[in-house]
Write a sequence for this structure.
């Protein structure tokens, strides 16, 4: 009985684990039969790939594109996305720089730098034309300019800074008009000219520009605090009065971090709002390529609406940056 049981067990084991082919031997596999409906056949309209009509030469295109999804649509969508971000991204226009040892100092003139210069030039021309004819009773452009200046002085500077508002009104007016003109200049529909002009874009859509503007506010805020409370008193009152001494290890890092979150908020808010609007406009126009030219009336109408909204956003963002700058300066005028 034992030899018979052993033989049966061995046979069952071999049935459960079939023997592998010897090494070096290539196991011949026969391809699965192809149904008649899937086989290519020639017709009067070209070559049929199974159940799908295709022109001659489509076999190669199908094999090349196999496993890649829909390459035509992917390339088209990728091209549209690249085109949109090309308009809002910065690019070097005039490469400049020099080396200090092993470090390269990049001073290249970029597209956003050129647009910032253009905005500054337009601002100077508008201000020069507006104040050319001063009068006791302001008229025309001078009246409009005075309205903005008085608004910044009375409604922003004096209400947030207090009796020292006159010292910081020039900076607040400069920041307001400069940001406003950069925002508005970026909305001009002026295309690029290959090799000659980079085209109009929004300089405030560059993090480098908004960072520098926020750093101006940061430096002036610290100077204003030391002028009002003294160089030592300002830093001694960094932690509010009445806080227990044992909380100082927590409060001092929090207050120091708070000094840098203010310019960070100014940087990101201005940058994000200006870039987002432009991306939405370009995307709405691109719907005519992604979907169908038939949606052009709807997409263009929506894009025009967003464009008009961007005119309002340009003014609002200049106001918010100026208002927050005045608030930060005013917070340093008195000890906590």
């Amino acid at each position: 009985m034992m030899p018979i049981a052993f033989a049966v067990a061995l046979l069952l084991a071999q049935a459960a684990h079939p023997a592998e082919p010897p090494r070096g031997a290539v196991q011949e596999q026969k391809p699965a039969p192809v149904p008649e409906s899937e086989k290519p056949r020639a017709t009067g309209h070209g070559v049929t790939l199974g159940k799908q009509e295709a022109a001659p030469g489509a076999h190669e295109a199908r094999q090349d594109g196999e496993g890649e999804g829909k390459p035509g649509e992917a390339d088209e969508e990728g091209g549209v996305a690249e085109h949109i971000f090309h308009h809002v991204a910065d690019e070097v226009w005039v490469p400049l720089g020099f080396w200090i040892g092993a470090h390269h100092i990049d001073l290249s003139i970029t597209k956003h730098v050129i647009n910032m210069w253009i905005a500054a030039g337009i601002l100077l021309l508008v201000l020069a034309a507006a104040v050319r004819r001063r009068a006791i009773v302001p008229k025309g452009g001078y009246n409009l300019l005075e309205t903005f200046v008085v608004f910044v002085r009375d409604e922003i500077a004096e209400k947030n800074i207090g009796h020292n508002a006159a010292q910081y009104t020039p900076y607040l007016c400069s920041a307001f008009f400069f940001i406003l003109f950069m925002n508005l200049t970026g909305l001009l529909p002026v295309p690029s000219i290959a090799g000659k002009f980079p085209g109009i874009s929004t300089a405030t859509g560059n993090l480098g520009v908004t960072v520098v503007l926020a750093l101006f506010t940061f430096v002036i805020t610290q100077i204003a605090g030391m002028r009002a409370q003294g160089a030592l008193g300002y830093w001694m009152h960094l932690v509010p009065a009445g806080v227990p001494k044992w909380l100082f290890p927590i409060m001092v890092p929090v207050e120091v971090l708070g000094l840098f979150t203010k310019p960070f908020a100014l940087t990101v808010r201005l940058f994000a709002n200006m870039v987002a609007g432009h991306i939405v406009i370009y995307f709405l126009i691109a719907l005519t390529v992604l979907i169908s030219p038939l949606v052009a009336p709807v997409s263009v109408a929506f894009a025009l609406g967003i464009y008009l909204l961007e005119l309002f956003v340009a003014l609002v963002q200049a106001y918010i940056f100026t208002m927050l700058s005045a608030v930060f300066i005013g917070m340093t005028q008195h000890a906590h």
Notes: Residues 113-331 form one domain. The two ends are 99 Å apart (CA to CA).
